[in-house]
Every structure is written in C-alpha cells, then in structure tokens.
Amino acid sequence: MNIRGIFVLMSGFLCVACGGGGGGGGGSAQPPPPPPPTVTLDDRVRSMIAAQGLTGDPTAGRDLPSIDEPLAQLGKLLFFSKSLSGGFDTACASCHHPALGGGDGLALPVGTGAVDPDVLGPGRMRPDGLPNVGRHSQSIFNVALYDDGMFWDLRVESLGKEDGQNGTNSGIRTPDSLPDNPDLSLPANTNLVAAQARFPVTVPEEMLGNFLQGADGDAVRQRLAERIGDYGAGAGEIPNNNWLPEFQTAFASSLPADQLITFDNIALALGEYQRSLIFVDNPWKAYVEGDNNAIGAQAKEGALLFFGDTEPGVSCGQCHGGDFFTDESMTVTGFPQLGPGKGDGANGDHDFGREQQTADVNDRFAFRTPTMLNLAATAPYSHSGAYSLIDAIGHYFIPDVTFDANFSGGSVCSVAQFADHPDCDTLYPGLVANSESAFDRVIELRNSDPAKTFPDLAFSPPSDAPLLLEFVDALTDPCTLDRACLAPWIPDPSEDPDGNQLNAVDGDGNPL
Ligand code: HEC
Ligand code: HEC
Which residue, among 161, 132, 133, has the nearest Cα to 146 in the 3D structure? Predict the structure, then answer.
C-alpha cells in the first residue's frame, strides 16, 4: 500500500470515530444511530475547493475587452504586422501565435533573421539553426489576469499590484524607469499589457534587427509610428499603406495620422487585442461550478494533491494557487538553464532571473510563477523551454533523474528544436553546471527561506506525478486547441492593411 492509501484509510477511520461520538446519554434503549455518511471523493474535493476559496472563474470583477471591439480588431492587425519590426521580418505573432498556444511552440525563440520569416513553430530557424533569444516565449493567453507584472522576471511591474486591476492603478515600473519608480512616459492608467508592448520592438534580436542602431527606445517607437502612419521620417517606407482608416475606425476619430498613429495608440491597441485572449472555460471550472462529471477520478485525486490536501508536502497551490493558478510570486524552482542565456555568470550563458531587475543576490534564479491554465496548448515549459509537461512535473519529484533523462552529458539532442543540429551534443556547454547551480539554490532556500521554493518530494509515491498531470490537463480551455475556435484572433489574409501581414505557416508549409 502506498502512502496515500494509508492516509485515505486513516481519514476514513477518523471519520468513523467522529460520527460515532456524542451519543450514549441516558439509560433507555435508543435506536441505533444511522450509519455515518460515506465521504466521497467529490465531497473531499468540494471541501478543499471551499477551503481554498475557489470559484472557478479568475475573470470575475475584471474589465476585459472582447475581440469584436474596434480597438482589439486594430490590435489584431498590428500584432500580426511585420511592419513593426526593423527589417519587416518579424511580428509579435512570430513568437506569440494563438494557434501555438499564444507562444511559438519552441523551447527558445527565433526572432529576427529567420530563414523563412513566415514559418512558425518547429522548423523556424536562423541560418545557424539556433535561437537568438535566451528565454522561452510566454503565452499571451490570459495576460489580462496578471496584476503584479509582465515577463519571467517581472521587469514591467505594477507598483501597487492591486488585485483585479491589471496594473492600471498605481504606476508601472519598466526597463525605462528607475527601480521602484513609475515609467512617466506611459499614458495615465496604462495597463501592464499595453506597457509591455513598448519593449519587443526595441530589442534587436526580437524585432528591431539592425534598424536604427544605437537609437534609444523612444526614438525607435517614434520612428515605427511614423512608418505605420506614413508621416515624418517614416513617410513612404510602406509603399501600399492603408493604416490610417484602420486607426480612424478603431479610435472613432478623424484626426490626421501624425496625431492618431502614435506609439502610445499602437501599444494601447496591441494591449486590448491581447487582453481579449481570455481562455478560462476548462473542465475544472465546470467541475468547480457544480458538474461532478466534468473531470475524472484521477484529476480529482490530482486536485487534492495539488492543493496539499492529501499530502501536505505536495502543495503546488502554495505558489500556483487561486483560480488563476498563480500568486505571481517570484520563486525559485531551479528548472534547467538551456540556451544562450541572458548574459549572466562567468560565460554569459546563465540567467539569474529576478536578480537582473533588483541587483539583489537573494533574488537569484527567481522567476514569476506561471499560471497552470491552458498548459496542454503551451508546450514546452519553464523559462528556458527545457521540458515537456510530464518532465516539468517530474522535476518537482526527481529533479536529477528528470534532468539526466533529457540532457545526459549536457546534450540537447532530445529537444525537438535542436534534434537535427549536427552539434546538438555540445551546443550549450554550460547546461549542466548552470542547471546544477540553479538547483543548488533550491536546496539552500529549503533551509533559509522555504516559502521561496518547493520542498523535497523525493519520497512521494510514484503515482503522484501522473495524478497531477491528469489534474493539470483539466485546466486547459478546449478553444485553445481548436483552430476554428481561435479564428477571431487570427487575421484573414484579406485583412492585410499593407502587404506586411504575417500569414504564418508551419514547418511543412501548412497555414497556421
Ligand atoms: C522573438 C520573439 C518575440 C517577439 C517577436 C515578441 N515577443 Fe513577447 N515575449 C517573448 C519572450 C521570450 C518573452 C519572455 C521574455 C522574458 O521574460 O524575459 C515574451 C513576453 C511577452 C509578454 C509577457 C507575458 C507574461 O506572461 O508576462 C507579452 C505580453 C508579450 N511578450 C507581448 C509581445 C508583443 C505585444 C510583441 C510585439 C510588439 C511581442 N511580444 C513580440 C518573445 C517575443
Ligand atoms: C515555490 C513556488 C512553486 C511551487 C511550490 C511549485 N511551483 Fe511550479 N513553478 C514555479 C515557478 C517560479 C515556475 C517557473 C520557473 C522557471 O521557469 O524557471 C514554475 C513552473 C511550473 C511549470 C511550468 C509552467 C510553464 O508554463 O512553463 C509547471 C508545469 C509547474 N510549475 C507545476 C508545478 C507542480 C505540479 C507543482 C507541485 C508539485 C509546483 N509547480 C509547485 C513555482 C512553484
């Protein structure tokens, strides 16, 4: 019998004892007490749900746009436009396509300089076959539900972190402002998603390429707005430019391009498009709302484990709690460090995570806790895209075994993105040492600050990980896996305002 079996037995035993107590007063013969009600699996899950205060709906009380709104429609066209990249070869959607879970389907992104810029997912590559961005592309699904900040290291950060506000209330720190200070160039009440949209266009590897080398972020944004708006230094840069009517419709305005097509308005529209990508209708939500048949018995067992009800040690909900399955905390899990890195460590191939923002060594290897919603659509996982879903879960139980099974001797040949690379055995020489140093930090924190990491789960029953996988699988909205359902968020080729729309294809040339 495994440990959980013993727990079940014990709680059953205790309940029998409880139910039988309290009688026995007086001497006269009493009818025998009714048999104690059997505590079903659903009873246990529902009392856990009550104790956790879950409602199933992480959108409650939020002000969210619909994709049908004019601003979100304009944002859709901009999000898919290669005109926002220096060399007309990359769009936001190159790394965040709805049909790829709102990400890019790769471990690490290939931004500018792709061999075929319109190929997304496996098969997208640069001439050297390697990614040029050091962190895994986050999904843009449900970004309107974050209140603390954007990015793995929270570098676009709400100063007040008010619940339900998506950062609109108290100022936002960005890479353009000093630590703990608001970015004063943001329009009043900007949300986190619109604030974030100001940055990818300024990064050479992501979108900027060699364009305007040495220019600061504001100069880049201004110039891109002039290009889209066909005025100033950008006039004539897009031969067939039909953006002005799109902006006039979206903003219900007849202002001329140089007043209407500003980067602030571009960012606002990009934000509203992304904020309309809400996918929370999953089987677990239906279950929480009352349908006992919405998920299977294993997923229910997995839910109890996840929230620490059956084995308190396995409390994934400690960080991935609540209806959005994240408290947005900056915590350390020591997932492998794969790829070119973010310039940290002796060889520049490490990624110190949150420490990059705070310069505080105590924040080393901390990353923003991701949501568990829609993971079936957003593979691969973690800040470096190193793992499949079962391996990401396995990491919490048997980190070393999981690591060796994927990266024995430091080889990345088992990662689909690198499998065909002739040097995949030796591509990232820092992989083993860097990953070990990140995991060592987990062990340190277990002694010094256990709330910032996860406990040692090595002695949990082997059946735990599959149950957790069943549960996590019930957190995916089927729409995210259904191209027809996603169609409102993907522009038709006929909607192209200027000939630079990304009409993406997969590695085999099939439209996404
Ligand atoms: C080359 C690939 C690439 C391109 C192009 C790109 N992104 Fe990203 N995006 C990423 C990566 C990688 C991250 C995570 C980076 C990090 O945390 O350091 C990210 C993070 C984000 C996030 C944060 C999500 C979260 O959960 O915090 C948003 C929102 C986003 N991108 C929107 C955009 C928009 C809007 C554009 C276009 C203006 C864009 N991206 C262009 C790769 C890309
Ligand atoms: C101490 C906080 C904490 C605990 C406890 C925790 N996680 Fe995580 N989880 C994180 C952080 C932070 C990341 C991102 C780390 C990274 O990418 O380097 C993460 C990433 C993940 C991912 C990858 C998600 C993605 O989108 O890339 C999965 C899956 C996951 N956790 C599942 C679990 C499960 C299952 C448990 C319980 C066994 C658990 N987590 C416990 C903080 C935590």
Answer: 161
